[in-house]
Design a protein that fits this description.
There is one protein chain. The chain is built from three helices and seven strands, in the order αββββαβββα. The chain is globular, with a radius of gyration of 14 Å. It is α+β, with helices and mostly antiparallel strands. β2 and β3 form a beta hairpin. A seven-stranded antiparallel β-sheet has the order 4-3-2-1-5-6-7.
Length: 129
Amino acid sequence: MSFNETFTDFYNNVKASLADGTFAKLTLAKTIGNTDLMNIYVRPILEEGELKLELKYKFQQEEVIEIHTIDAARDKLGAYINNPFMSAILFTTEFDLKYKLNKKRAVSITEKGNTFGNASEVLLEYLNR
């Protein structure tokens, strides 16, 4: 499978956690080489009553924020897998899901116990209205 296909499978878990109210955060990390872009942090926000995702690009000297629909955010984030990021971690209240590329660019998706006990407050506010 290509990075695009495997990341889509991973991102379907992101969408499911947003839908069921368990999403805490999403982080892209572990860059290849010394890059200016260090991390991308993703969190839900409400914009004009619609649930969207805020992508915070953490550079060495600055931060840049973009807001996208949930589906558009998948395309933006997918473009950074393998260039420069080697991993993405979905944190939910039920489990943490790690998408990882090794040196040979083989993909592994592993699940472990949850790090966060509470879902995003913005998400809960959106789902409970």
